[in-house]
Write a structure and sequence with these properties.
The chain is α/β, with parallel strands linked by helices. 45% of the residues lie in helices and 15% in strands. The protein contains 13 helices and seven strands. The protein has one domain: Vaccinia Virus protein VP39 (Rossmann fold, 3-Layer(aba) Sandwich). β4, α9 and β5 form a beta-alpha-beta unit. Its EC number is 2.1.1.6. Belongs to the class I-like SAM-binding methyltransferase superfamily. Cation-dependent O-methyltransferase family. Pfam families: Methyltransf_3. This is catechol O-methyltransferase.
């Protein structure tokens, strides 16, 4: 047992500061000038560094699932919840720009990660297209709505605090940002480490959602079905929504799991297709 504990401690110690090490690795490349303003080369270097260290990025296996959505729906504005080191912001920001979009908004809780991401996004030549907003996702979503900067969700990529997936989607619903025939949501990590509450919600019938909503708004995260380390990650003492969350149970979703063949994880792609009245 002691041997296993020492190995685990050693692994954690080696992983500490890996985000800063990634930044140093990329900026120490001898051909940095050829990497500058080339989003794919920056993404490729993150993938290469991920062979040595474990990173919470969407990765090359699942990445094309969302770039295909961008090509199909051509959003003018795309929003992501969870920037981390900027991998998805670079990959998808570049795709949105090439598809004729106007902006990419990336919401990140951790200011240190946000700063690393900004430097990599700038290196990729996307500094004037991708905007990183630092803070809680629910607070920032509400600010974007109240300021009028965002009037509807076109394409939303969710890859942040796992228990917040469902509450943040419901917040967007009750703000009127989820629009039938317009809004598409892509949620990462729904199989590994998994997100049972989110999958249940987006796959539920209107009738079932109405029954749940009849209990009234909530101000807690559903944590059942998550690993303990997933529940304790990121939010710490502030692990509760900032708003009373009810959502809009009348919205009708079509939701499908997109899983690369032979890969352990998947992305849930959800479209709002209508409103069921009565």
């Amino acid at each position: 047992m002691a041997g296993k504990q020492n190995q685990s401690t050693s692994a954690r110690s080696r992983e500490q500061g890996k985000e800063q090490k990634l930044l140093e690795f990329i900026f120490s490349q001898p051909d940095l000038d050829s990497i500058r303003n080339n989003p794919q080369k920056v993404v490729d270097l993150i993938d290469k560094f991920s062979e040595t260290y474990s990173f919470m990025t969407v990765g090359p296996e699942k990445g094309p699932i969302v770039t295909d959505l961008i090509t199909k729906y051509r959003p003018q504005t795309m929003i992501e919840l969870g920037c981390y080191v900027g991998y998805s912001a670079i990959l998808y920001g570049d795709a949105v720009r090439r598809a004729g979009g106007k902006r990419y908004l990336s919401l990140e809780l951790n200011p240190e990660f946000a700063e690393i991401a900004r430097k990599l996004i700038e290196l990729a030549g996307l500094g004037d297209f991708v905007t990183i907003l630092v803070g809680r996702s629910d607070v920032l979503l509400n600010q974007l709505y109240e300021s009028g900067q965002v009037k509807e969700i076109e394409l939303l990529f969710i890859d942040h605090y796992k228990p917040a997936y469902t509450t943040d989607l419901k917040l967007c619903e009750q703000l009127g940002l989820i629009v039938p025939g317009v809004s598409v949501i892509a949620a990462d990590n729904v199989i590994y480490p998994g997100n049972p509450p989110y999958l249940e919600y987006v796959r539920s019938s209107v009738e079932k959602k109405r029954q749940e909503a009849a209990k009234g708004p909530v101000r807690t995260y559903v944590t059942e079905g998550f690993l303990e380390r997933t529940v304790n990650a990121y939010m710490g003492d502030e692990s509760a929504p900032k708003f009373e969350i009810l959502g809009n149970p009348n919205l009708v979703y079509e939701s499908v799991l997109r899983q690369p063949e032979g890969y352990k994880d998947a992305i849930e792609v959800t479209r709002c297709v209508g409103v069921q009245e009565g």
